Amino acid sequence: MKLIDGKATAEAIKAEIAATVEQMVAEGRKRPHLAAILVGHDGGSETYVANKVKACERCGFRSTLIRFEDTVEETQLLEAIARLNADADVDGFIVQLPLPRHISEQRVIQAIDYRKDVDGFHPVNVGRMSIGLPCFLPATPAGIVELLGRHGIPTKGAECVVLGRSNIVGKPVAQLLMQKHNPGDCTVTVCHSATRDLKEHTRRADIIIAALGQPGFVTADMVKPGAVIIDVGTTRVPDPSRKSGFRLCGDVDFENVAPICSWITPVPGGVGPMTICSLMQNTLLAARHEIY
Ligand code: GUN
């Protein structure tokens, strides 16, 4: 078994981005600028956004964090988005999800100028991805594909089973892996809560992408020996022995699955750091107008 070190891979990519940014600055161009809107005080979202701000510093980007209380009205949020759309100084921005229930995530996402949608959630970017046009790729799927590529893991013709059908991970990663490029060219099956005989599917898989948000869901009896396991789970499980009061738990029973697979991502330190890296890559592309 070989461990896929997402943390080290992400560090290498951020160093590459930082070098590009310093070159841009030396040429008299401005630093890329990412803005983030954070609504409320959800622990997970606070951590993710803090990590995104930190990654911006590491890459030499400017960052702006705009905060709202969770009582904010949708119209106020849409006004903030309109201001960011119009602000030529901001290259790209994200609205951290989830949002409070009284706010429509789809209305918010669709209010973002797709040319600044560095999360790749706007229907224009989703549609362009699905037909293979240049676009901002969603961060987690792009990070997964980059991890496979940088580790030289063969995907052509591979049977790939995706567990989970979310708009953020399951659906887009399935699309990327079936596209005609490298890494890609997989035969993809997407499984979800209504799938019958789940184990029948997973036991055939050369690559399993676990993105359901159920700690320890993928057990050794579901895995073909030699398979590649990508664990996207990041459930926060209470753990009083930690300073933070919780630990991150993946969707894979790592202890029992790791010995039988060829490659596996740990949690934490696997897909998570790559996700933030993809956001930085998208922001750099936005600042350099390489897509739009
Ligand atoms: N919530 C969980 N993942 C993401 C992400 O990639 N982007 C945003 N904006 N919110 C998220």
Automatic annotation (TrEMBL):
<comment type="function">
    <text>Catalyzes the oxidation of 5,10-methylenetetrahydrofolate to 5,10-methenyltetrahydrofolate and then the hydrolysis of 5,10-methenyltetrahydrofolate to 10-formyltetrahydrofolate.</text>
</comment>
<dbReference type="InterPro" id="IPR036291">
    <property type="entry name" value="NAD(P)-bd_dom_sf"/>
</dbReference>
<dbReference type="InterPro" id="IPR046346">
    <property type="entry name" value="Aminoacid_DH-like_N_sf"/>
</dbReference>
<dbReference type="GO" id="GO:0035999">
    <property type="term" value="P:tetrahydrofolate interconversion"/>
</dbReference>
<keyword id="KW-0486">Methionine biosynthesis</keyword>
<dbReference type="InterPro" id="IPR020867">
    <property type="entry name" value="THF_DH/CycHdrlase_CS"/>
</dbReference>
<protein>
    <recommendedName>
        <fullName>Bifunctional protein FolD</fullName>
        <ecNumber>1.5.1.5</ecNumber>
        <ecNumber>3.5.4.9</ecNumber>
    </recommendedName>
</protein>
<keyword id="KW-0521">NADP</keyword>
<feature type="binding site">
    <location>
        <position position="234"/>
    </location>
    <ligand>
        <name>NADP(+)</name>
    </ligand>
</feature>
<dbReference type="InterPro" id="IPR000672">
    <property type="entry name" value="THF_DH/CycHdrlase"/>
</dbReference>
<comment type="pathway">
    <text>One-carbon metabolism; tetrahydrofolate interconversion.</text>
</comment>
<comment type="similarity">
    <text>Belongs to the tetrahydrofolate dehydrogenase/cyclohydrolase family.</text>
</comment>
<keyword id="KW-0378">Hydrolase</keyword>
<keyword id="KW-0560">Oxidoreductase</keyword>
<keyword id="KW-0658">Purine biosynthesis</keyword>
<dbReference type="GO" id="GO:0000105">
    <property type="term" value="P:L-histidine biosynthetic process"/>
</dbReference>
<keyword id="KW-0511">Multifunctional enzyme</keyword>
<dbReference type="Pfam" id="PF00763">
    <property type="entry name" value="THF_DHG_CYH"/>
</dbReference>
<dbReference type="GO" id="GO:0004488">
    <property type="term" value="F:methylenetetrahydrofolate dehydrogenase (NADP+) activity"/>
</dbReference>
<feature type="binding site">
    <location>
        <begin position="164"/>
        <end position="166"/>
    </location>
    <ligand>
        <name>NADP(+)</name>
    </ligand>
</feature>
<dbReference type="InterPro" id="IPR020631">
    <property type="entry name" value="THF_DH/CycHdrlase_NAD-bd_dom"/>
</dbReference>
<dbReference type="GO" id="GO:0006164">
    <property type="term" value="P:purine nucleotide biosynthetic process"/>
</dbReference>
<dbReference type="GO" id="GO:0009086">
    <property type="term" value="P:methionine biosynthetic process"/>
</dbReference>
<keyword id="KW-0554">One-carbon metabolism</keyword>
<dbReference type="GO" id="GO:0004477">
    <property type="term" value="F:methenyltetrahydrofolate cyclohydrolase activity"/>
</dbReference>
<dbReference type="Pfam" id="PF02882">
    <property type="entry name" value="THF_DHG_CYH_C"/>
</dbReference>
<feature type="domain" description="Tetrahydrofolate dehydrogenase/cyclohydrolase NAD(P)-binding">
    <location>
        <begin position="138"/>
        <end position="289"/>
    </location>
</feature>
<comment type="subunit">
    <text>Homodimer.</text>
</comment>
<dbReference type="InterPro" id="IPR020630">
    <property type="entry name" value="THF_DH/CycHdrlase_cat_dom"/>
</dbReference>
<dbReference type="GO" id="GO:0005829">
    <property type="term" value="C:cytosol"/>
</dbReference>
<keyword id="KW-0028">Amino-acid biosynthesis</keyword>
<feature type="domain" description="Tetrahydrofolate dehydrogenase/cyclohydrolase catalytic">
    <location>
        <begin position="4"/>
        <end position="119"/>
    </location>
</feature>
<keyword id="KW-0368">Histidine biosynthesis</keyword>
